[in-house]
Structure formats: structure tokens, C-alpha cells
Here is the input.
Amino acid sequence: MPLTIHDQPLPYASLLPQRPASAVEMVVIHCTELPDLATAREYGERVLYESGAGASGHYYIDRDGSIYRYVPGTRVANHVRGHNPNSIGIELVNLGRHPDWWSSRHQTMTEPYTPAQIAALRALLAQLRQDFPNLHLIAGHEDLDTARMPASDDPTKEVPRKLDPGPMFPWDEVLEGSGLQRIGNGDERQP
Here is the structure.
């Protein structure tokens, strides 16, 4: 079955810096930490920077396994601090810690990823390995952005700034046969 990717470029996609396919070495897995794809799109369309761009992944995978491309892989999207120039961001629609992302009482992620999402992710990773010849690494957002911040409900406590894709993400299943090496490992960190 062929991989279907729905192209829905963000309004500012053409403003993002270009890069050659050879610059891409890593995929970063995220979860939206929002209720649905429409809300994630709304967040992605928000202009946050003087350049006219916002924060967004390249690909979004909905709960039913549908794949959407918001930013071409040959553009640098703003999805992870310090690693944007050499990575592709893939966002999986998932509640995560929504709506209390930084509350010390709400740091447990409980929504499992759907089998359709994981199957679509595995197919997308296989396609990306063909499209980007130097792609050989994979990481979770939590593996790369390990900053902590004061909790919104109690500033004397600290919580992870990023916790996605989180403990419900099936790393073993995703990595099996992918040819990608995971870097970092947020599994030992406690919220």
C-alpha cells in the first residue's frame, strides 16, 4: 500500500531557511499535547518570530494514521531547541499533559498512541530514510530538550519543559527494522 502524505504547507513555510536533503541526519518524535489536529494546525500557524514564522513540526500524524506535511523536509522548521538545522520533526496527535502542561500535579501522560499512528510513523520513517540519505538518528523531544522550569501551580517545584513523546510511546516497536539509532534516553528521567 503506497504512503499517502497530505501536503498542507503552513502559510509561512516559504519563509523558513532552505537546506539540502543531505543536511538531515535526525528525526525528532514529538506529540502535540493538544486535543486534535485542528488545534495543532492553529498553533502551527501562529507567527512567533520576527522572520514571520512560528513553531511547527514537518509532519503530523493524526490518530487515524493520516499523515500531513506542514513544512517540506528541505526547509528548517522550528520544532526543537538546538537541533532544527539537521532534523525533521514528526508530531503525533496526542493529549500529552494538555491542558495543564506545567502543573506539578499533571505530569503523567495517559493517552496511548494508536496502532494506526504507529504504523503510519513506521511507513513515514522508511520513506524519509529513502528521501534523506544521511538520516540515521532518531530522538524524542524529551531526549533533546531536557530543561526544567518552575511548575505553574507551585513555583518551588520544577517540571520538565518537554516530556514528549512520553512513556506511552512504543520505542521498541518504532525502532525495530528502522535502521535508525536512538540518541539520548529520557526514560531514566523522573518528572
Q: What stands out?
A: The first strand starts at residue 5 and ends at 7.
